[in-house]
Amino acid sequence: MKRALFAGMAVAFAFGSTAAVAQDRSDWPESFTVGTASQGGTYFAYGSGWANLVAEELGISGGGEVTGGPMQNMALVHTGEAAFGMTTMGPAAESLAGTNPIAPGLQMTNACAMFPMYQTPFSITALSSSGITSVADIPAGAKIGFGPAGSTSDTYFPRMLEELGVDFERRNGGWADLGGQLQDGLLDVIAFAAGVPVPAVSQLEVQTDVNIIEFTEAEQKQIMDAFPVSEFDIAADTYTTLTEPARSVSMWNFAIANCELPESFVYAATDVVMSDNERMVSIHRAARSTVPANWDKNKVMKWHPGAAKWFNENGASIPADMIH
């Protein structure tokens, strides 16, 4: 689990609100990290942003950490190597069941739900010069980038394309690196599973002409019947390339916390994120869905007691048997 900590993302020792200062901090950690994913992806931008926000407001050194994504984040948070992380519901369910490929047989029950983030759409991008405008256009043996190994995209998108009858060669890597490979002609397609707008796609749009490929209604239904995803439209204003909404499917993302972290610390960190949606949206537009009303999108993980306390005080009704 090679991890790179970017000191530039860390924010140290700036005390925030009076409420935060008044907390009994005797059992709080001196610092924390948030497991994100690769550079160029939404997890990296979103996760680094909320890590810095919490660090600034609570006056604790903290920052985002590059990881392999949701599967690895579940493992890092379960073991306590990372205090916080980000995951999608599919990888979370597999990790709890003991089928996480990072540690087969280990039930990662020490990773708890913290707060709802956003939905991850599954979308496909190709260069306009490729002539690929639909899933059916993807040629047999196409080289497709699926993101970092073990990521949500890498876990589910290959299975989805196989379900749709696509024949391909699988490639892995960080989103920014795969974007460069697509531009250089080393890949035919990138299959993204990330909150939108995906930074790597936005960057590609600036540098070249791309096609953002939607599913047909039949393809969308076929995928929804076979996988734990729901209907989703990528809004037309997400990318300059789009002139109308693009049909997709999506999976919910949640922030996670090590279940043994002090209740008051997780309560305070949850309060920072959930009480200032405008600031979260300024970090990444996907945070428009980071609102208390979406607490009920978690049907997989037990809640951290500190997070559950905050949500139940703010309109949720998390049952006791769903709290760690």
TrEMBL record:
<dbReference type="InterPro" id="IPR011852">
    <property type="entry name" value="TRAP_TAXI"/>
</dbReference>
<dbReference type="Pfam" id="PF16868">
    <property type="entry name" value="NMT1_3"/>
</dbReference>
<protein>
    <recommendedName>
        <fullName>C4-dicarboxylate ABC transporter substrate-binding protein</fullName>
    </recommendedName>
</protein>
<feature type="signal peptide">
    <location>
        <begin position="1"/>
        <end position="22"/>
    </location>
</feature>
<keyword id="KW-0732">Signal</keyword>
